[in-house]
TrEMBL record:
The lineage of its organism: unclassified sequences, metagenomes, ecological metagenomes. Residues 266-356 form the PpiC domain. One of its GO terms (molecular function) is peptidyl-prolyl cis-trans isomerase activity. Belongs to the PpiD chaperone family. This is Periplasmic chaperone PpiD. It is found in: Cell inner membrane. GO terms for cellular component: plasma membrane. Keywords: Cell inner membrane, Cell membrane, Chaperone, Membrane, Transmembrane, Transmembrane helix. The chain crosses the membrane at residues 12-31. It is a single-pass type II membrane protein.
Length: 636
């Protein structure tokens, strides 16, 4: 059974099974009746429980992972508001419920089975594929467990997996089900399609002024002018200062030395390695190499393979982390094609054969230019910081924006009559408006008379902004937009008439007339007929039309908006056919996999519902919130 589970990790079945576990209640839901509201336990699962500490530890682990992935941008509040914390509780509860059921049914994992599983997990192995106790203990500690606690968690996980595997591994899809599904997939339908474009509707009576004014009044929301503002602002960025900064040749030479050192650190090496239990064996191999034996011959003699002995693309830091400082220094001191003397590492004695050196390439001129640019950027950052401190001093002294610009030799920008997107009333984007959305957001949150504040945008840029006037959202005068009102009135009238025409045709089509007979050459109507399979990928029609065709009964019709929003489309189903088109062996196998996965999911879902009611499962929302509050108070 253990071997079945391990091997299955690479199969679609295990992927789906693990996916079900990960999705947990996100797929299956949490019954509203299992939420409690008192007590000190996060959840009760039969006579088992989920403690506050267990949930707090899981929350911290999951939250840390998310913060690493998002570079710290995700906060606890965001995790809770988006429902991730609720899912983490659900995952823990469901895991315990299945583990409880497995134990109650006598499912057990022996010490030997647990050991076999642990040493086979790649995450617990070193670079040579051997189990590493240090790695195992490190991962356990990272998750907040002792080695013994981590082993028991893995034991329960295996017992749970044994149970779930036993529930679903024997599921097979009946041939009758497969045949019905193949028939469903291969179904073909013939349909008529008639398009009625609105733009082709002609002979519309011209509206009078009263018509247009009524339309303008009924659609006031479409004719509102946005809020406009007059603002003044100062921006500071590195590019404002870097052009005026000079650096000396001595500074550049010093920076080039540091860059050269960094270039060496970025060098990467491919090598082969020999591992020995003791120095005596390593020295003998070194003597054999010196006597003319090849590295590959000795690799083979040790019972290893060239593939297992090969390491590709290791930087100095990589080698330092894997083998220690002595080995790393030896690897990066040796020439390409040479081998090192025996070096002692944490896991025995090693000899390394350097097969390739990949060093960053750069000309001296390029390095010099890069060093100069880097120095200028660093000095510009220092100057930017100094200017920002001076600005804060000016603000503290009550200085106006004009005073700050004059005293610190900064440009005072003006933008008149702009909206929240940086456009003026003519629809032109003002070129001097910063592109960072933080700027305009601040400009439209600031009120007239507010004192300026030094605020930061992305990439270390700063700004100050004051609002001189605000023109509130207002209805545009009819006279100013009469042309637009006229165009919209005409467009809506064409659309209304196209819909009326489509309704008339639909009624006749439902009564038995064909769309081909109902189509006319007047008005730009378009007629076509199609025959489609349910799984058709030819894109003869849009996906929405194809879906509608396979929803209709024979002889029935339907109106749909045109994909380009220009009028309407009428579709009518003419016939259905089920051709005898057997699938290929590969297609049949894939279909069976998908159907089996669906059966497995439903089986596990039903079993979960059974456990939820009969254990029972009770989640304590107050305790969950208490954990969140406690973690938040610790951080503060």
């Amino acid at each position: 059974m253990l071997q079945f589970f391990r091997n299955g990790l690479t199969s679609y079945f295990a992927t789906a099974l693990l996916g079900l576990l990960i999705a947990s209640f996100a797929l299956w839901g949490i019954g509203g009746d299992i939420l409690g509201g008192a007590g000190s336990k996060v959840a009760e699962i039969g006579d088992d429980k989920l403690t506050l500490n267990e949930y707090a530890r899981e929350f911290q682990n999951k939250f840390s992972e998310i913060q690493q992935q998002s570079n710290g941008e995700v906060t606890r509040e965001m995790v809770i508001d988006q429902g991730l914390s609720r899912k983490w509780v659900a995952d823990l509860v469901q895991g315990k419920a299945f583990a409880h059921a497995a134990h109650s049914l006598g499912v057990r994992v022996t010490d030997a089975q647990l050991r076999e599983f642990i040493i086979s997990v790649e995450s617990f192995q070193d670079t040579l594929g051997e189990f590493s106790l240090a790695t195992f203990e490190s991962l356990a500690g990272y998750r907040g467990y002792t080695s013994g606690e981590f082993e028991e968690i893995l034991r329960k996980d295996l017992e749970r997996q044994y149970l779930m595997t036993s529930l679903v591994s024997a599921i097979s899809v009946p041939n009758a089900v497969e045949k019905i599904f193949i028939k469903f997939l291969n179904e073909e339908r013939a349909a008529e399609i008639l398009t009625i474009p609105a733009f082709s509707i002609a002979n519309i009576s011209e509206p009078n002024e009263s018509d247009l004014e009524q339309y303008y009044s009924n659609n006031r929301a479409n004719y509102m002018a946005p809020e406009y503002r007059d603002i003044r602002f100062i921006t500071l960025s590195i590019k404002n200062f870097v052009g005026d900064i000079t650096v000396t040749d001595a500074e550049i030479d010093e920076a080039m030395g540091a860059a050269a050192k960094e270039s060496v650190e970025n060098e990467k090496r491919n090598f082969e390695q020999l591992l020995f239990d003791d120095k005596e064996a390593a020295d003998k191999a070194y003597t054999d190499l010196s006597a003319g034996k090849t590295f590959n011959e000795i690799i083979t003699a040790t019972g290893s393979t060239i593939e297992d002995a090969t390491v590709i693309g290791n930087a100095h830091q990589d080698a330092l982390d894997l083998y220690g400082s002595s080995a790393a220094d030896s690897i990066f001191a040796a020439d390409q094609g040479a081998y090192t003397a025996p070096v002692e590492t944490d896991f025995g004695w090693r000899i390394f054969n350097i097969t390739k050196i990949s060093a960053p390439t750069a000309t001296k001129a390029n390095l010099r230019q890069e060093a100069e640019d880097h120095l200028k950027t660093e000095k510009a950052i220092d100057l930017l910081y100094t200017k920002s401190e001076l600005i804060n001093d000016e603000l503290a002294a009550g200085g106006s924006l004009a005073d700050i610009a004059g005293n610190l030799n900064l440009k005072l920008n003006v933008a008149l009559n702009i909206d929240a997107k940086g456009y003026n009333s003519k629809g032109d984007r003002l070129p001097n408006i910063p592109s960072d959305p933080i700027f305009l957001a601040s400009a439209f949150e600031t009120l007239e008379g507010d004192e300026p504040l030094l605020e930061e945008m992305g990439d270390g840029e700063y700004f100050l902004v004051v609002v001189d006037s605000i023109a509130e959202v207002a209805l545009r005068p009819f006279e100013e937009i009469r042309t637009s009102v006229y165009d919209m009135w005409m467009a809506d009238t064409r659309k209304r008439l196209a819909r009326e025409q489509a309704n008339e045709i639909l009624t006749k089509a439902q009564d038995g007339e064909s769309l081909a007979d109902l189509a006319t050459t007047d008005g730009g109507m378009g007629y076509t007929s199609v025959t489609l399979a349910r799984n058709d990928q030819t894109e003869k029609v849009t996906r929405a039309l194809q879906d509608s065709i396979f929803q209709l009964d024979i002889g029935r019709a339907r109106i749909m908006p045109a994909a380009d929003n220009n009028g309407f489309v009428i579709i009518k189903l003419v016939s259905r056919n089920h051709p005898d088109a057997p699938m290929t062996a590969a297609q049949s196998a894939q279909l069976k996999q998908l159907l089996t996965q669906e059966y497995q999911q439903r089986t596990l879902s039903n079993y979960w519902r059974y456990l939820e009611v009969n254990l029972p499962v009770i989640i304590n929302e107050r305790a969950v919130n208490a954990v969140h509050d406690q973690l938040d108070s610790r951080e503060q």
